[in-house]
Amino acid sequence: MTRTLLLTGGCGFIGSNFVRFVLANRPDWRIINLDVLSYSGNPENLADLEGDPRYRFVKGDICDMDTVAPLMEEADGVVHMAAESHVDRSIMDSKPFVVSNVLGTQTLLDAARRAKGGKGAGRFVLVSTDEVYGSLPLERPDLRFTEETPLQPNSPYAASKTGADLLARAAFHTFGMDVVTTRCSNNFGPYQFPEKVIPLFVTNLMENQQVPLYGDGKNVRDWIHVDDHCEGVLTVLEKGRAGEVYNIGGDNERSNLELTHAILDIMGKGKDMIRPVQDRLGHDRRYAIDASKMANELGWRPSRSAWPDALESTVRWYVDNRSWWQRVKSGAYREYYAKQYGAKG
Ligand code: TYD
Is-above-0.70 flag for pTM? Predict the structure, then answer.
């Protein structure tokens, strides 16, 4: 069946990987990519798709109903990935997070519901985050987030994503919309904006600069390869149950210290390249995902996230694509980086 999927945020890291994944795996689908091209959206990420009849890029804002509504008329499925996503930025200035993540999501939900004379734009998948659950204590390695874990977001970023998550829930309960929500752990892979820890550290090391490790480095994240995440979202779009939430994780917990040492090893650099810096305010200690609902109900499991191979190939991508990240790093990013860490970078 030919499908026209409306994707938001397709010029970002996960979005651009999702466009490629869907076009490669669903040969009869078309994608409309709505992206406002904020600081982290980079049309270069999909430059090779220009002219592909199955792909259309629309520059526009998810908060603007006049932009969104006509696109919903064309869609028979929506995957909403557009978001402000960087915790440190949300600590410095939270308003863009509330606007994009909360207001943007509600605008899309309203437009999707009203489309086609009230028949709607088909299934709506909200790509949420494991950060809505808050933090787990390091002392309890037995605990993991399930879909029933109470929502206790700790950062302005996580709180704004929780707002979106709950609005999606409300759209299902109030209007009977076909909404499904995914909550995923930390992604890694190609095209990630180099403010996130893995591309930041790899690209710093390539420029012979130290890597800023927050606090004691014992914070734990569950790392999933972006292609595993994309496959999970596609699985939920096709097979998930309306009104449900599905956790997606890599089953790959690592402390930041462990991650940093692995990157240093791959790149042949010494521990002297670590620069301990002040901890992030309110820094969540540990995220860990129980993705057994995805496995048991939908038959999905991560298959591309295991280290060292997945980390090595990701590091190699940044090594091989220096001109990509140099252009990114020298742009809007520089200003932000200077504010965070002084004039270096
Ligand atoms: P990040 O990539 O910002 O993802 P998130 O905060 O959403 O999990 O950070 C991943 C981990 O790396 C997090 O525990 C914070 C830490 N970190 C550093 O130690 N130094 C850095 O410069 C950055 C950006 C992150």
Answer: yes
